[in-house]
Amino acid sequence: MAKPTAPGKAEAAAQTRDRLVSRARSLFARRGYADVGLTEIVAHAGVTKGALYHHFDSKADLFRAVIAQVHDEVGERVAAAAEASEDPWEQLLHGCDAFLRASVDPVTQRILLIDGPAVLGWREWKALDASASERHLTEMIEELIEEEVLPTQPVKPLVHLLSGAMNEAALWLAHASGPDDIAATMRALTAMLDGLRRPGAK
């Protein structure tokens, strides 16, 4: 039987990077960014500090890779929930609900909503959010206006208002959420969105 081919340098480097991100993510999620050191991360990943610094400039740089991974996963959950319906209005509601539910996941809470703004700073954290979630929300709002579900209006201000409301709700849920809070938050958000609809819109 032929021996399995050893991974090439590029593949081995990618595997090392993925392992560092995975181990760091696990530690950050359990204990928080501030309580985890690089020595512990490389020990859990089974690599040297030199290998870590080959891929990341610092602990904060490694955290950026972790938070980007979590952010992408939340975006995938939101997109999947929205795509479960063909109705644009239902897509918006399902997407918002998925986002709020993701915000109470312990990993999302710790990495994306609690440590994220503190480590990256608000400006960089907001830019990360805008790169994906605000783009998807813009597309939804544009479609709802085109379908005459929402009145014709400037899209960008509305997107920022809705994004701000959902981010604030997610941050609140991350810090002080009880078992009924997410349902109550979604009811309040749905009522707010209903108020934006064109009268008589289906």
What would a concise description of this structure say?
With 202 residues, the chain is mainly α. It is 76% helix and 0% strand.
Name of the CATH architecture of the largest domain? Orthogonal Bundle
Alpha-carbon distance between the termini? 65 Å
Number of domains: 2
* Beta strand count: 0
CATH superfamily of the largest domain: Tetracycline Repressor, domain 2
3D architecture notes:
The protein is mostly helical. It folds into two domains: 10-56, Homeodomain-like (Arc Repressor Mutant, subunit A, Orthogonal Bundle); 59-195, Tetracycline Repressor, domain 2, CATH 1.10.357.10. It has nine helices and no strands. Helix 1 (9-31) packs across helix 4, helix 4 runs parallel beside helix 7 (122-146) and helix 8 runs antiparallel to helix 9. The model has no long low-confidence stretch (mean pLDDT 90).
How are the secondary structure elements laid out?
Blueprint: H1 9-31, H2 38-45, H3 49-55, H4 59-83, H5 88-103, H6 106-120, H7 122-146, H8 155-175, H9 181-194
Helix pairs in contact: 1-2, 1-4, 1-6, 4-5, 4-6, 4-7, 5-7, 5-8, 5-9, 6-7, 6-8, 7-8, 8-9
